[in-house]
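User: tokens in, sequence out, please.
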């Protein structure tokens, strides 16, 4: 008589094919893909899971927890699964769990003369307990990876949203667009100074017409940027400074009297001969 482990091991590929055949192909994300290469990868990932999960019932298995960790890390970082709603992924984990509970029942029935009810229940508990742990671990790692990707994308967007654009060998433009939070203000300050030094900008026009809200923090950071540019030899001018921005600056006691201020970019460029 074969062991439960051997019984399961023989069925691993059939489990994958059965699972994929039962998938709702109308789902979003990786489960609804029609790309042959992605389908092949999805099946491979599922098959690797089965090869690992069977080892739970192998008394001689070694380093199983470490191998599961590696599989979970790889799956949590997989682009296809990152693009798939987490409830759908959990639902498929539960579908696979049902496959194993069915296998336990099938094996127990085929070997009913030698398999006790207690043993059957113990196997079921092993399956349920293992899947609970796997689903929890995957959820945590998937969330952490998604947050890391989102943060990286946000940092890239922030960095790209504060470009110093050379207009001629002496004058450059810094068009600021969108809301400015504390993190973005810090990035703008650092990158603007670095870029002005790197390309040796003598005059920088900072356009604020695309900034919807200027609060205390933004006004202070803007003043700090102007002062910082002075220290690296760049003279800053402002355009698009709306009345409410000027009012905020006055209320804060920020003195822009030494800075050339223009209503529009075009008017500023005319005066700066750019």
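Assistant: Sequence out:
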């Amino acid at each position: 008589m074969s062991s439960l482990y051997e019984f399961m091991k023989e069925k691993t590929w059939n489990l994958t094919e059965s699972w994929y055949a039962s998938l709702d192909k109308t789902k979003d994300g990786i489960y609804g893909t029609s790309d042959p290469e992605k389908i092949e990868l999805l099946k491979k990932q599922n098959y690797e899971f089965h090869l690992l999960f069977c080892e739970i019932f192998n008394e001689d298995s070694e380093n199983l927890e470490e191998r599961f960790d590696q599989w979970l890390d790889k799956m949590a970082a997989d682009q296809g699964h990152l693009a798939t709603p987490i409830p759908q992924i959990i639902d498929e984990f539960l579908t696979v769990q049902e496959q194993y509970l069915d296998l336990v029942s099938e094996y127990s029935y085929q070997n009913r003369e030698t398999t006790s009810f207690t043993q059957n229940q113990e196997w079921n508990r092993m399956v349920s307990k293992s899947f609970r742990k796997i689903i929890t671990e995957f959820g945590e790692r998937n969330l952490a990876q998604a947050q890391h990707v989102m943060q990286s994308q946000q940092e890239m967007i922030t960095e790209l949203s504060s470009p110093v654009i050379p207009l001629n060998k002496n004058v450059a433009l810094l068009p600021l667009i969108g809301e400015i939070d504390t993190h973005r203000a810090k990035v703008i300050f650092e990158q603007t100074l670095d870029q002005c030094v790197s390309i040796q900008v003598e005059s920088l026009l900072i356009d604020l017409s695309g900034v919807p809200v200027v609060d205390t923090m933004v006004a202070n950071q803007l003043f700090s940027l102007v002062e910082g540019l002075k220290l690296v030899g760049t003279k800053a001018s402002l355009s698009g400074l709306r009345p409410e921005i000027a009012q905020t600056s006055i209320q804060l006691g920020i003195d822009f009297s030494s800075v050339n201020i223009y209503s529009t970019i075009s008017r500023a460029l005319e005066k700066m001969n750019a």
